[in-house]
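Researcher: Please predict.
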Amino acid sequence: MKKTLAALAVLGAFAGSAFAANVTLYGIIDTGLDYSQTKVDGAKSTHKFEMGTGSHDASRFGLKGVEELGNGLKVGFVLENGFKSDTGSLGVDKTIFDREAQVYIEGAFGKLGAGRLGQLDSGNGSYALFGGAVAPYSTGLTNVPGHKYVMGATFGRYDNMLAYQTPTFAGFTGYAQYSFGKSADKTDDATAYVEGKSSTDRFAALGLKYANGPLNVSAVVSQINAKSDMDHDVDDPLAVSLGGAYDFGVAKLYASGQYFKDYTLAVGALNAAAIAKQLEGFGINVGVAIPVLAGTVKLDTGYMDAEASADNDKREMDRFTFGAGYEYPLSKRTLAYVGVGYYQDNYKNTTEKDAKFYGATCGISHKF
């Protein structure tokens, strides 16, 4: 009730018709301390110790609402903004609802949404299939690698997105997405950006989820129709992702994998000069979550192998990751956490040196 009253107060400056919907104000504030060390072979290590924000859960606030139209139909919306709890600044400069801005209609036919949305093959937003459902750390803590670290760059959000979710039949739910263009990809010449045209990246994805008791499995195929003009001539990135989890009660096991072609990395190389921007390869990740002393121990490890997509570029790399941590609920809405992580990049057919990363984080995440 308090959330609803607060949301109504925030919306008071808008039209009175907004009060017809059931509106909720919600959010997460997550603040902690982060330490990291990066070591390039043959060079001096670099160290960093700082206050972090969103180390476990990205700090955010949002408004969501729904109105029943009758005959099983309803209309709803989600407006969600990311922010940095250590400074109070917006997550993305000059963008108030950078995490999600969606209006949708839902009924017996399924759910149809439109706006700024996270990709199916990501851990972001209302339609995400490749986050916490397939890995113990979702996309990873700050300085603690998750499955995102061994995948292609398919963990983003797109503007001008249409998304459709089918009704669930025998545990199966289908998904489809199409974006007419990502405004953040504008060239220096703003007039060159035309929604739905070749001057911007467009995105399409199909997904299928199966959920039945302790088993949850998701598969996604996605492709970016990359912008093409005199300054940009690249192949269209493709990704095929599969992941899931099974809850045995005493432990929950996770596994995920992805084949990617003509992608950059979701988490860039430690020595960026050593590897090409467009890569072809695969990543696999396994993890486990084990209840211990009223909290949860989480372990996660992954491997990625990738090579430059261009025939005349022989550069290759592989990556090993490991993460471990413990989460303890202080209440239903507040969580304390600690974690440590490591990953290593090995490069082939290049003069650049291999690199290693060590990290640790701790903090508190509070939901409201």
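Model: Helices lie at 2-10.
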